[in-house]
Design brief:
The chain has ten helices and 15 strands. With 322 residues, it is α/β, with parallel strands linked by helices. The protein is globular and about 60 Å long.
């Protein structure tokens, strides 16, 4: 089968199309014919091997042990393991690659059957592929920060691959939501349900009078120190960017003061995937697709993602939807 393979850390040029052996599912796995996957920061951090934590997670300090990236997957079941009874061959499903195993930048992928759910019929494969990691990470971070109805929540990076789901989920939890984005994305963020939108080109939310119960930095670009002044007493700041500073701030604020700084290691499981099924069916969760690239242009997709201006999700179309 055809796959985009990375054998050593480096720039997008290390990604190469190769013919590799088609996998066979274990007893508890399914083999998926991949129709669509995504590219996001996790992909290119694993490709770069930077920060150093990415090398630990990728399983190789000198070179990656996971040679095929792509964490999200939407496709059709080609083969079923002997212990799998909840799906049938031909079912259209979406979900996540198994952590530490080869991903969906390939024509076929084997995943545990518990990692997927039936693809919502209202969504294309491209739209469905955008949900699992994007919505999953935002759900875990918001829950870790203790989101609840009635809070005033600010989402920094509200138009990005995580932020678009942060806005929708925060509204679902009953929060008053302020989204921070660039001028060209204001209407899109409003369409997701944001009550207020701040254009970061014209206004610095860290210098404003309004205070927030929760600040979710979905792009990892504003520190706890910068955001502390606009947090309410007992307010929480949480960021997707793992750094020494956030770990130190987390420990410090756990012991002193009323405001909290947090980071969590997101682990998306079957419960999160099932949770999204209901939200999609109810019309409360949707994917914003920025660009769609064929697998052969994965390098360009990495470059675009790494530039940091994506509006929603970057999708990789691997095979057709036939």
């Amino acid at each position: 089968m055809k796959a985009m393979v990375v054998t050593h850390y480096g720039p997008p040029e290390v990604l190469e199309i190769q013919e590799v052996e088609k996998p066979s599912p274990a007893n508890d796995e399914i083999l998926i014919k991949v129709h669509a996957t995504t590219v996001g920061p996790t992909d290119w951090h694993f490709r770069l091997g930077s920060p150093f934590l990415a090398r630990i997670l990728a399983g190789g300090l000198r070179k990656p042990k996971v040679n095929i990236l792509g964490f999200d997957v939407s496709g059709s079941i080609a083969e079923i393991g002997s212990n799998v009874d909840q799906f049938e061959t031909g079912d259209e499903v979406y979900g996540l690659a198994a952590f530490g195993k080869n991903g969906a930048n390939a024509e076929y992928i084997c995943v545990p059957a518990t990692n997927v759910s039936m693809k919502p019929t209202s969504m294309t494969h491209e739209e469905a592929a955008g949900i699992p990691s994007g919505a999953g990470v935002s759900l875990i971070f918001l829950r870790s920060a203790g989101i609840r109805a009635g809070q005033h929540v600010l989402i920094n990076g509200a138009s990005g691959g995580l932020g678009i789901f942060g806005v929708q989920l925060a509204k679902h939890f009953g929060a008053e939501v302020t989204g921070v984005c660039s001028t060209g994305n204001i209407e899109m963020v409003r369409s997701l349900g944001a009550d207020h939108v701040i254009d970061y080109n014209k206004q610095d939310f860290t210098k404003d009078e309004p205070t927030y119960d929760l600040i979710y930095d979905a792009v990892g670009k504003r520190s706890y120190k910068e955001c502390q002044a606009v947090l309410k007493p007992k307010g929480t700041y949480i960021t997707t960017w793992a750094s020494i500073n956030i770990f130190l701030n987390s420990m410090w604020t756990l012991m002193y003061g009323s405001k909290r700084a947090k980071y969590t290691m997101p682990k998306i499981g079957p419960e999160e995937i099932r949770y999204f099924d209901g939200l999609v069916q109810a019309g409360k969760l949707k994917t914003i697709v920025d660009r769609v690239y064929p697998l052969e242009e994965l390098r360009a997709a990495h470059e675009y993602s790494e530039a940091g201006h994506a509006k929603g999700r970057i999708i990789i179309r691997v095979t057709g939807n036939e």
